[in-house]
Amino acid sequence: MSEKGSLICSVNVVDQEKIQKLEQILPDKEMTKKMAEIFKALADPTRLHIVQALLEEELCVCDISAVVNLSISAISHQLRLLRTMHIVKFRKQGKMVYYSLDDDHITLLVQTALEHVQEKTGESVRA
Amino acid sequence: MSEKGSLICSVNVVDQEKIQKLEQILPDKEMTKKMAEIFKALADPTRLHIVQALLEEELCVCDISAVVNLSISAISHQLRLLRTMHIVKFRKQGKMVYYSLDDDHITLLVQTALEHVQEKTGESVRA
DNA sequence: CTTTCATTTGAATACTTGTTCAAATGTAAT
DNA sequence: ATTACATTTGAACAAGTATTCAAATGAAAG
């Protein structure tokens, strides 16, 4: 943000038009920020693990803690994050709290990422 | 990871079977970690912005810096990260270095995230 | 060879984030 | 009320990360 203005390189001067065209097409900064937040929610192994488990079935905090093998407290903290991101929803029943996925898009995102990694890892993709 | 073992809550004891079934179905930890890394690559506004721009066309570092409105140095650092993640590839031509997307899955991920945000923001989704 | 310019790199800094521990809710049972 | 238990919360600490600045490459041109 400093070497701009007078110090614009020749290429930028030439392609100023290209830059402006891109700025028009691209989603605005707010949109990009929100998209980044979705990715960020899935960017932590613990949270992704939680989401993967909830992809299968509804689970209580205790269950999740067992599957992910992390303290109840740590899980609860992460669940709060996923809650505020509208990725999971919850349902109280007695002392227990049951969590499930709130959003359908998440499934597609996780699936796509899985395919990507499988391909890059050289795993056979048929079936 | 501490209140486990002897202190397992009654629910877990009952559903121990459920937990084991989940552990079988779910991708192993290595896979989950790799998936999280893909998401992490897209989890930063700056990097996502770069990727969105490259979705449209091949660009040099200078161009990207102009579009994202951040110092050349900052962009170069992020590009290195995207490079090691195999998300972008580059091509040298004289003094300039041109970057483009290395992976097809990224497009789908970004599109899905965009749709998700648009829905949650209450934007009309037709067309 | 020296200068110029696009890009990269390394160190430093400020900021963010995941986990832990201890304490607080809140619900159900004795 | 008191106890037991599932979950949440807040503070604190360690680890990770994005950006900046200054310096280093490396390629083309004078």
Automatic annotation (TrEMBL), chains A, B:
The Gene Ontology terms for molecular function here are: DNA binding; DNA-binding transcription factor activity
What are the record keywords, sorted? Answer: DNA-binding, Transcription, Transcription regulation
Superkingdom field: Bacteria
Stretches assigned to the HTH arsR-type domain = 27-121
Tell me, what's a Pfam family for it? HTH_5
User: What sections of the protein cross the membrane?
Assistant: none
Question: Do you know which SMART domains this protein is assigned to?
Answer: HTH_ARSR
* This protein's record includes keyword Transcription regulation: yes
Q: Which Gene3D superfamilies match?
A: Winged helix-like DNA-binding domain superfamily/Winged helix DNA-binding domain (1.10.10.10)
Q: Would I find Nucleus among this entry's keywords?
A: no
Q: Which InterPro entries match?
A: ArsR-like_HTH, ArsR_HTH, HTH_ArsR_DNA-bd_dom, Metal_resp_trans_reg, WH-like_DNA-bd_sf, WH_DNA-bd_sf
Check the record and name the SUPFAM superfamilies matching this protein. Winged helix' DNA-binding domain
Protein name, per record:
ArsR family transcriptional regulator
Q: Species name for this entry?
A: Caldithrix abyssi
